[in-house]
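Lay summary. Proteins are chains of building blocks that fold into shapes, and those shapes determine what they do. In this project we predict the shape from the chain. Here is one chain we studied, written as its sequence of building blocks.
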Amino acid sequence: MEIGLIGLGKMGGNMRERLRRAGHTVVGFDRDPALADVGSLEELVAKLPSPRVVWVMVPAGDPTRSTIGELKELLGEGDVVVDGGNSKYTDDAVNAASLAENGIGYVDCGVSGGVWGLENGYALMYGGSAEHAAKVMPAFEALKPADTSDGLVHCGSTPGAGHFAKMVHNGIEYAMMQSYAEGWELLDKVDIVENVPEIFASWRTGTVVRSWLLDLLVDQLREDEHLDKIRGYAEDSGEGRWTVEAALDNAVPLPAISASLFARFVSRQEDDVAMKAISAMRNGFGGHAVKKD
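And here is the predicted shape, written in a compact code that computers can read:
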């Protein structure tokens, strides 16, 4: 297929490459001309055959809303816009309704895979009508992990279903990382335990706590056993907050996820020891910047 891709950063750039490796034609646009294939959104749209599919991978909030607003004026009936960024799910209904005024379809897609998605594939959680999603399906199939039926799921026909699922995924991620981090801090502090990195490494085989996050933490600990080079400071990208907000709106108790979110706030007040491990894992899976001592 031929597809437009807007936003060629850490995620978008790797997605463009994975799509091209699968034989698809990608026309990419980015504000950085060194990354872009074309010089403007107008040029991107002009290079695509109808019905056009344009995938947006820009920061959530105003950057996404303004990009979709521009596409509304450039695309036409039968075209489809995919929001693959980390937009709040409540934005999707607004975007879908706005594009529908011009006969343009809309699919929201939560994308997980970080900087490793190029080689391993991405977990894709999409929402919107089956009709609109069908036009994107060749791209979905190329981006998902190979040799498995998992990794691609239609979360619901209501716009926002995909981003809601990705939001909850990220909330769970917060709590998992917090548990590993607290366990690491305790093991690292006591005198009777030695070789903490290899203790974590031993958990990767046969135990119920094995995971990719654990693999990433082991890699970081083997390079810097006490994480002395990393400041105990961790940002949150929004999804954890939105997960807790949704829990409040629906009266669903989320004590572990809520506590992990608040722990990140604590990290910004002082050099929190456990947050060194959180920061290390975020750097490992997503290439997120760490604050160095």
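What the prediction tells us: The mean pLDDT is 95.
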